[in-house]
Amino acid sequence: MSPETGQLALRLAKQIEGSGPISVAEYMRAANEEYYGSGDPFGVEGDFITAPEVSQMFGELVGMWLTDIWMRQNYPSNCHYVELGPGRGTLAADALRAMGRFDFAPTVHLVETSEALRAKQAANVPGAVFHDNIASLPTDGPLLVIANEFFDALPVRQLILTHAGWRERVVVRDRGTKFAAMPGSHAMDAAVPEHVRNAPVGSILETAPDSTGLMYELAARLAEQGGVMLVVDYGYVQPGLGSTLQAVKNHSPADPFSDPGTCDLTVHVNFFELANMARMRNLQIAGPTAQGVWLSALGINQRAAALAETSPQHTADIQAARDRLVKADEMGTLFKVMAVHSPDWPVPEGFGETVA
Ligand code: SAH
Known about the structure:
12 helices, 37% helix, globular, binds S-adenosyl-L-homocysteine, eight-stranded mixed sheet, five-stranded antiparallel sheet, Rossmann fold, alpha/beta
């Protein structure tokens, strides 16, 4: 499909031609709404594979991790399992099954905007309550929140340094035929913190107002209601400059400004900022730790051995999945795990080592 024939491409082109450029954030929001709204991108057949789709071990270990915290908190009875952007619902199903073995059965709340994915989640997680956003989550008990590859899909705002100063990075129509990013016309210097004001021309500063805003609100709930939140994503811990916006289609990189709505747009998650939001609500932070280190600390090797014993014919597949989740040259280092929790809840397991 050419950029000119996609429904969203046509709508955005018309909007830009009629009323001027849109911000990168607005473009990313529209593209991902369309992308996730139109189907199921996960798995070997789709555009990308996420950790819970690699192996049931991922969700099971998340479930065990939550169970351990719940037990050490003395079995509170009114907990709510909350997942942000649950994809197919695979992680939730695996985690809740593992929790059920310990008679831990919280109510289940899924925050999901895509109707197509809600249908899959409802099939995999019977009884789940759906939410458009976090505002309607229950207010009457501790929240156990999971966000795997969620924040990377939320819109990023980009500011770019030109010879004339900092500008918002916007999306235009290049010669009326394709989308392209360029500096906008309004001065944005006041929106840039002191320490990056004198960066080299061409530098890009990313912020993620949707992500930080959501984290700030959810952190207030955790402070008030008790509980814990787990964030797993690719991202960075030390703030830096540069665009991390990328597109993935059929398991390969694609041009983020071509065919909006037909490929997954993602950014690297700024763990530093997310942790800051939680800290401002007086939560405690654990990690970030490399995913491989965290899963190993939680016992993925033992879990793989147990699964292989039950189904010896699948030993090679189980080992391959374990390697994919843990090894440094696969998902083990690129993906980071961070937990934030109410100060009167126990320090979660698996965070012996933090990464820079
Ligand atoms: N956690 C899943 C899926 C990750 S993909 C997994 O690991 O497999 C991102 C998910 O977030 C999708 O389910 C997508 O529909 C959802 N999503 C994207 N933007 C959202 C938003 N603003 N609010 C709620 N869900 C959103």
